[in-house]
Amino acid sequence: MMAKMYYEQDCNLNELKGKKVAVIGYGSQGHAHALNLKESGCDVCVGLRAGSKNWAAAEEAGLKVMTVAEAAKWGDVVMMLVNDEVQADVYKKDIAPGLEAGNMLMFAHGFNIHFKQIVPPADVDVVMIAPKGPGHTVRSLYVNGKGVPCLLAVEQNATGKAYDLGLAYAAGIGGARGGVMETTFQDETETDLFGEQAVLCGGVVELMKCGFETLVEAGYEPENAYFECIHEMKLIIDLINKGGVAMMNYSISDTAEFGEYVSGPRVLPYEETKKNMNAVLKDIQNGKFAGQWIAENKNGRTFFNASRRMLAQHPMEVVGAQLRKNMLWGDDNDPDTASN
Questions:
Q1: 282: alpha, beta or left, given left = phi > 0 and alpha = psi -120 to 50?
Q2: Quick check: 194 and 163 in contact, CB under 8 A?
């Protein structure tokens, strides 16, 4: 069965009329949600820590800004858009005391609800609207009259209006223009973590790193290795995003397509790769990964910080930074402001 999809004609933005929407956080997603909702006619405020560096930026954008606790008490709808690792503490300290029966607590990722780091009271709606794209794209597509597709999940429907309000919120940020797919907090959390770890972030970075190192160790110039194994990744993914693997294969040479069939399975042996991917998925499903991430944050992020430093020092990153400075697109390097 196909997942249920909703579009603009299925969403009534008027469901948010008379509702006050508090967006907690003003990072990549937070700024996009707040600005899109405001321009959709919603009554919006941004909740930030006192002294936050983003306070002035939000005010300059014409948004009301309050402390997190004030915003949570003010809002009928409270969207949590701070990082996963701090959400539980922010919720306990500043959100929970301001929640009232009939409020709607929202998330853009299911981690803290699914792994029970946050347990809301039974008399509030708990809903997820998760845009399937970074915040700057949520913003830029909205400005251009389009929208990033979203996922909708309802964990608690205390008022009986959670689906209607969730769809209205999706319409308010532009998601209904691209389509809203119904899912669950569990499915979104587990598939999102798996995709990030096994393919999109973990898998792709390791693949690019291995390709880069193989060419450099064989005596090729690091700059050539960077262009062939890293820079062109975006060009290929853009083709797949637009028309699937078929469009990529149509656009590349027959030589490249033949190499795909012959050498791809040698680099990533199917059975072994699937076995490893299933192990990653199992650790996500049974909570092992969540436990590791929660413990990592409680213990000072020593592994996380060391890994980040090592990656920054990798020749792939050093060479890439030097090349990008010399390219026409080299100054477009801020993921939170690009295309806004």
A1: alpha
A2: no
CB 102, CB 124: distance < 8 Å: yes
Taking a C-beta distance cutoff of 8 angstroms, is the pair 167, 10 a contact?
yes
Blockwise average pLDDT, block size 10, the chain, 340 residues: 88 96 97 98 97 95 97 98 96 97 97 97 98 94 96 98 98 97 97 96 97 97 96 94 95 96 96 97 97 96 97 96 79 45
Sequence letter at residue 287: G
What is the rounded distance in angstroms from the CA atom of residue 109 to the CA atom of residue 272? 30
User: Looking at residue 337, what is its pLDDT?
Assistant: 42
3-state class (DSSP) for residue 334 = coil
The catalytic residue among 109, 114, 136, 231 is 109
**Residue 65: Cβ within 10 Å count:** 20
> Is residue 109 among the annotated active site residues?
yes
CA distances (Å), origin 287, targets 116, 139, 179, 202, 284:
11, 33, 30, 18, 5
From first CA to last CA, the distance across the chain in angstroms is 37
List, in order, residues 6 or more apart from 74 with CB less than 8 Å away: 20, 22, 45, 66, 98
Strand pairing of 150-156 and 180-182?
Answer: parallel
CA distance 274 to 314: 28
**Residues 82/108, Cβ–Cβ less than 8 Å:** no
What DSSP string describes 247-310?
A: HHHHHS-HHHHHHHHHHHHHHS-HHHHHHHHHHHHHHHHTTHHHHHHHHHHHTT-HHHHHHHHH
Read off φ and ψ for residue 268, nearest 5 degrees.
-125, 80
* CA dihedral angle for residue 63, residue 167, residue 20, residue 80, rounded to 10 degrees: -70
> What does the chain come to in residues?
340
CA 174/CA 144 separation, integer angstroms: 10
pTM: 0.88
